[in-house]
Amino acid sequence: MKLIPVVLIFMCSILLTFAQEKQPQKLKVFLDCNSVCDENFIKTEITVVDFVLDRLAADVHLLITSQVNGSGGNSFQLIFFGQNSFKNRLNDSLLFSLSANVTSVETRLETVKRIKLGLIPFIINTPYVNSIEINMQDIKNDVDNSSSTLFTKDKWNYWVYKIGIDGEFNEDEVYRNEKQSGNISVNRTTPSLRVNFLLNGNYSNSRYEYDSSASILNIKVVNSNYEMSHYLVASLGRNWSYRYELSYSNSTFSNIKNKLYFGTGIEYAIIPYSQSNNKFFAINYNLDISRYNYFETTIYDKTSETLLGQKIQADLSLKQKWGYITSRITYHNFFNDWKLNNLSADLNINLRVTGGLFFYVYFNGALEHDQIYLEKGDASIEEILTKRKQLQSSYKIYSGIGLSYRFGSILNNFVNPRFSNY
Question: Which among 283, 359, 350, 282 has a CA at the least distance from the CA of 321?
Fold first, then answer.
């Protein structure tokens, strides 16, 4: 009689195992969108597949990238990489664009709709093919009709206008600060031309007041800057582009009473511009002329000067299944003295080494030997502590590096929004 419970348990385990084996397997999808999509919403709306955390265990690696388009909105690209049993299938891509006026709700609805479309060729090879419903009715009020064709007639002729203002105020017994800023921009973007006009300004007024037993320290710091600029970028073919830029600016912090700048240059895209959503590599060369007028005499005994210069810049970005890399190297110098130069570098790498192991590094640095505008003379302690004016520095660095490892269950279908702020 004692064997009956054991036999029953054994029989139940066999039945459970058999039932699990009979359960149809869902398509496994690895969602790779680098924060350009709402992952929780996608997982909630698409339950016919299993979203997994390990890209190597997935049947489909879904890579989603985006770029800002001429209207101020975003152009998205979805690439469906087949893996494991689907590794011999050709990769599929879907493109769609959304204007700057769409809401986040509309964006995620459109993203989910495109994901569903892209997954259909994979799901039809699974037992869940009956979950597919297709509606071929004409949709009159789409979220963004601009995605239907690149050359749709536009009543604004592709011109986009933007106005912004911002204000900030904070105060306590020792410190008081107020800031105001505003900007106006006008731009037009087409496949062959990009034009921009910009006006912006900032004003900052800070007060430091400290009453000690010896004396009362009262410091007031006022800084302001403004800029008016215009640039044009024109296509010269599949790989070549031309640009020019004109600007007029001011900065009390940098001792610049006014600066008039004109620059022009050419760029060659080693990887064609048409592939820029996933990979981009270009080098550009620019010549510039600048006319400076200063508030105070500079460290080079100048109150005004005109300088000719040149700039060389290389940009590289890659967004692939293994992660992404963005980098830029820029060199600039003035012709009157080649020692007055600036070399800067930016690097951001995020790599999936294997499974749940990630490696990341970021770096921003510059060797600055062209601070010609710095005010002559020593700065006071108050000016240093309150950042009343810019000080000389031959370099600046900001960097970080790290590893992360994720393990455990590879399934990631569930969404739990409770106490989302914790």
Answer: 350
Q: Could you tell me if 142 and 116 are in contact, meaning their C-beta atoms sit under 8 angstroms apart? A: no
What is the residue type of 369? H
Count of beta carbons in the 10 Å neighbourhood of residue 172? 7
Which parts of 239-388 fold into alpha helices (H)? 381-385
pTM score, whole prediction: 0.66
Report the C-alpha dihedral over residues 380, 384, 385, 390, rounded to 10 degrees: 140
418 HSE (CA, 13 A, CB side): 2
Place of tokens 């300088």: 307
Residue range 325-372, pLDDT digits in tens: 999 999 999 999 999 999 999 999 988 777 678 888 999 999 988 887
pLDDT at 120: 87
Q: Do the beta carbons of residue 387 and residue 354 sit within 8 Å?
A: no
CA distance 164 to 175: 27
Q: Region of 284 please: left (phi>0), alpha (psi -120 to 50) or beta.
A: beta
How far, in Å, CA of 30 to CA of 20, rounded? 23
Tokens of 38: 């709402």
Question: What are the residue ranges in the chain where pLDDT is below 50?
Answer: 18-21, 141-151, 419
Q: Could you tell me the two tokens for 164?
A: 């912004």
SS3 of residue 8 by DSSP: helix
Q: What is the DSSP string of 382-401?
A: HHHHTT-S----SEEEEEEE
Query: Phi and psi of 276, rounded to 5°?
Result: -65, -15
**Gap between the Cα atoms of 171 and 273, Å rounded:** 49
* Cα 285 to Cα 52, 242, 256, distances in angstroms: 45, 10, 26
